[in-house]
Amino acid sequence: MASRGKSGKTFITMLLIAVVVFGLVYVGISLTSDLGKSKTEITVENADNQLNKLYKNIQVSNAATIKGQIDIDPVSVGDSLPDISKFPVTVESSTNSYVEIFSSTEKSGTGTDGWLNEVAQVFNQAGIEVNGNTASVKIRSIASGTATDYIRSGKYVPDAFSPSNEYWGEMVKAQGVKTELVTKRLVGNVTGVVTKKAKYDELVDKYGSLNVKTITDAIAANELAMGYTDPFASSTGLNFLVTALATFDSSNLLGEQAVQGFEKFQANVPFIASTTLQMRDAAKTGMLDAFVMEYQSYVNAADMQGGYVFTPFGVRHDSPLYALGDLPQEKLDIISAFAAFAAEDAYQRKAEEMGFNGHEEYMAELETVDGNTLSAAQKLWKEKKNGNKPVVAVFVADVSGSMDGEPLHRLKQSLLTGQKYLGRDNSIGFVSYANDVTINLPIGKYDTNQQSMFVGAINSLQAGGGTATFDGIVVAMKMLQEEMAVNPDVKPLIFVLSDGETNEGHSLNDIRDLIEAYRIPVYTIGYNANIQALQSISSINEAASINADTEDVVYKIGNLLNVQM
Question: Could you give the C-alpha distances from 230 to 138, 238, 292, 530, in angstroms and in order?
Answer without folding.
Answer: 28, 7, 11, 26
